[in-house]
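Predict the 3D structure for this chain.
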Amino acid sequence: MSNTIGHGLLLPTVLKHQIKASPSLLSNGFCGQRLTVRKSSFRRSCVVSGSTQAVLATDTSSELGGRFKLQGDIEMQVDVKISSVALLEIQITNSTDHLYLHWGGTRNRNEKWVLPSRCPEGTKVFNDQALRTPFLKSGSVSLLKVEIDDPAIEAIEFLIVDERHDIWYKDNGQNFYVKFPKREKLVSNVGVPEDLVQIQAYLRWERNGKQTYTPEQEKKEFEEARKELQRELEKGNSLDDVRKKITKGEIKTEVLKKLGKKIYRTPERITRKKRDVMQLLRKSIPVSEEEKIAVKPKDLSALQIFSKTIAEQSDTNILNKKTYRLADKELLVLVTNTSSKTGVHVATDMEGPLTLHWALSEKAREWLVPPADMLPVGSISLDKAAETQFSTISVDGTSNKIQVFELYMEDSIFVGMPFVLRHGDNWVKDNDSDFYVEFTKPNKPIKYAGDGKGTAKDLLDKISSLESVAEQSFMHRFNIAADLIEEAKDADELGLAGILVWMRFMATRQLIWNKNYCVKPREISQAQDRLIDKLQNVYSSYPQYSELLRMIMSSVGRGGQGDVGQRIRDEILVIQKNNKCKGGMMEEWHQKLHNNTSPDDVVICQALMNYIKSDLDISVYWETLNSNGITKERLLSYDRAIHNEPDFSKDQKEGLLRDLGNYLRTLKAVHSGADLESAISNCIGYISEGRGMVGVKINSISGLPSGFPELLQFVLEHVEDKNVEPLLEGLLETRQELKPLLSKSNGRLKDLLFLDIALDSTVRTAIERSYEVLKNAKPEKIMYLITLLLENLILSSDNNEDLIYCWKGWNRALTMVKNGENDWALFAKSVLDRTRLALASKGELYHQLLQPSAEYLGALLGIDQWAVSIFTEEMIRSGSAASLSSLVNRIDPVLRNVANLGSWQVISPVEAVGYIVVVDELLSVQNKSYEKPTILVAKTVSGEEEIPDGTVAVLTSDMPDVLSHVSVRARNSKVCFATCFDTDILNDLRAKEGKLLNLKPTSADITYSEVNEETLTRSNNLEEVGPSSTVQLIKKQFNGRYAVSSEDFTSEMVGAKSRNIAYLKGKVPSFVGIPTSVALPFGVFEKVLSDELNQGVSEKLQILKKQLETDGSVVLGEIRKTVLDLSAPSQLVQELKNTMQSSEMPWPGDEGEQRWEQAWLAIKKVWASKWNERAYLSTKKVKLDHDYLCMAVLVQEIINADYAFVIHTTNPSSGDSSEIYAEVVKGLGETLVGAYPGRALSFISKKDNLDSPKVLGYPSKPVGLFIRRSIIFRSDSNGEDLEGYAGAGLYDSVPMDEEDKVVVDYSCDPLIIDFDFQKSILSSIARVGDCIEKLYGSPQDIEGVVRDGKIYVVQTRPQM
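Done. Predicted structure below.
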């Protein structure tokens, strides 16, 4: 076989690690001149580290060539011949066996290597970096020819490899470099094959309206077609490129025909329409508690009740359970086992006379007459069978009747029971086969499935019972699924989640695709089509489930009525006949296709085509199969197994490649839900008629937008471009144009949906193949691609408001880059953090919705645990969010570097020595007590946790606010606390679990190292940190008043929170507002509890308090619930009303009794927070008497804030008393002090320059809290501000009305985008902090809000 092959550069793969070339010993070598010899260059080579150096031996023997001495007497002759192609001939004399050419093509000397797809025979791809081609050995000479017909290839770089001895021959330590002469003039001599000219001429004729040509006109058209193709070659395209463009098969040709545009002259980039992104907004539809209660679970059917009754009998195990569909009726078969008997229970809801014609089997499925002593009463023995009449029973009274047959056996030798039914004069079978039930347990042990909480349990139970029928074929499975769609829809999103999990288990081959059942491809595609039609109808009526429905459809595939499915069966016969390949592997595949086609057939067809394209390299066939999960074992597992490999001859290649290409489209039309080309053709319409094959005509969808076909053409023409940016723009513009059609009623909606799914999938695959190119991309390019991926995810998501504001944030960042704003990277980092939170939130929603169903159904069906465990994770990875996450991770270190953020944010800079312990959540260990000094590496830290005893450091990837409770607690307890942004550092820390580390933080970084036990003994970490012995609570008494105004706020009446507010009145500047306040003083709770109205509550609380030591967490919850049962004494109500009205505060009762009840409930929640778990444990930890803790309640009118802030008048991270540190959030301050994800805007301000605040970080919190005019009831205990004990934030402040959670848009917030406004607000906040610190003469922790530009302070306390 010849070792020379025509060589075109088709779809090049860029080398990941190029072997760089440096100037060669050749002066103008291989550039069209004769080779000359430099006198100093002739020398022997020596082997260095397994490689040799080649030197030029003599002058060339041909016009373009050279001779090299490789080693000893081994010489290499290189010749280049130029005609219409370039021919590189290499001859090596006196060589060993196993020589290889290690090579790649280049377009210029400094570019990376590219790997052509067509190569000399035997060529392999080496580590995705180079080609390796074997030399042919003839005596002592090794020969190789490489033919280059691609004008775009300017040079070949290569080395010679002796694989056996691991020797590399080089050109003086560098690559051999062979540059070809410029061949512009030669391009015109490259012949264009006549078959391509004919196709191009035909396409021109189609575009020109299929006119009738004279012979002269026809000749002219042929010449014009030839010129068009010649111009394509002159652009640098190879013949392979051109052939691929115009011979992608009839469907592609017909698509392009319908598009009616020029094939090769699509624009380089489309012009995107300007749209309001808010038009894409979709919010989740909240379900009220009343609606949830109104949705009652479906009543169990009579068969379900019968099955449940048997399963619940004592000492009864279910060995086997099957449910069969009989038109609109069902047949249930249960096999049970008690201590001594095996029972068979057959039940059905069929009506009318019914007889069971049955037998028993010693071998599977054989018919043996049952022994007489086993026959139920009234049975008749026949030859090899028996007949028994069904009995009618009622399962729940007279209305719910079923017919049953029951058989019991003791120590039987029988393994199963075959049977059929006789219903009147009709025989009822299992799809033309006998029913058969096994008496033994299934091979896989039945796992405990749990209680099905968080799932549509009844639906999943039904799916499980029907699986034995579903596994017979795709036809059965799809028909069963179609029958269940209505029930799934009635179970809301959990029902559809159950269907998705089931279909996904099928698609990932976790379930049996075919089991001893022959089914026509047409029947499969019709069943598939029926299911898709049902899903399409739900999509139209219930748009809130569109995301789930898209995922189900993608798992199922398109299907198709009529003969689309039948063509699978018919066309394989024609392929075999036309190409004379009726035996071997093709015949086995044909039998498999006739028996039961599946998505595997798409892969098998592609593998055959790749095998043919590789010049019949069988390894390529197996490579394609294996990379798509099809092994030899899987081929052998089919009911019609495939034992053989393909074995085609060269003269079969052309015909098979053409016919299999057409056949692949037929297979994809049925099985693929995300194949772009077939999805487009289904919408545009096509007619396909192969050689001797059944024709197909698909009409175009009416009502497509103007210019839509041109968009589709652009996408098809650029779908394989190396630069993916224009392609992504085209894909997203197409999806935007398609979006309005998806919300309209259309009989072809499913085709539009599959097109949208395919476009979405293509976005993902396009960006994934660009990762290598993006390694050195500028930040703004990656940011722009992130906006495109976000847009794609927005278009695919049901609840997308947060994603939309992330998109707007990235666009704002791009504008900042364009305008040269210094803070662009800092702002972009905040948008990045918010995007991560949005993706994490989406992942959590998927997990909550899908994983319970995967766990429950997986256990019922015996799915491998590894597949169940990673179910949701794999769903996320296969979706649009995964590629977006990858890009976000790529740009994170870039933004941190530009913004000078480093890898750490150090919240509490304390040196620490301790043992590494890795935990998932800080919350899960907050009650632990570590015996050894411990450094916790925690994935999740919300901000409200306690730090466990024995902890010397907490390191996390999470982003709690610097002023959150856990941050304050860490600083007070002298615990190192920091956020790490670098995943490599975090992974390294996790890998050191159990090791002893020394952490050395600065204000912006942490270094760490492993140390020995001696370091630990010297460490200050062994010093116990806690409150001083003088810290104690003084119990407060009821002073006779239920309510007091701010003038009466004394230490005996209220806590420091209330007193400080009263103190500030009249002392702060006029630009600072102080809200009017009243309070329910100390002792009121205890007084109310002692009132005879609440005797029962008091007694219950006493009992619960005694139980606290044994079961703290549960009892604390019960105590809080019990406090809410308190009734308000009339004197309390009257005094509070009078006090509030005299202080000119609105009285809730004026709006009705219900409003007062809301206020009273809020007061009780504040009191109940004395028994919050975190607060209770905190007092125990520092040995404070919890009974001495008293709770006053500060009552204030809520200011409906634009922004809320917290100030620390000494920078808490650095300890710098010369600068103020503050954090600001949108809306109310609960998102700042509570456990709300994301970061606040943070800034510092020097006290000697308060008008120049410096922003340290922009906000990433996705939610702001807003409220109408209302009242807030704030905790004000005697334990919140003790010196040496940080009690602030442990107890609750409760508004009378629930806050509205609003997803916030920072891209148009004046605090972010208006520099003057930002400076004004931040400097005003800083001035307030400075002023109040001066009033008290000590560092302060201040909370306040901003409303219409005015600053209000709602509380202040000493900074801890």
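The radius of gyration is 39 Å.
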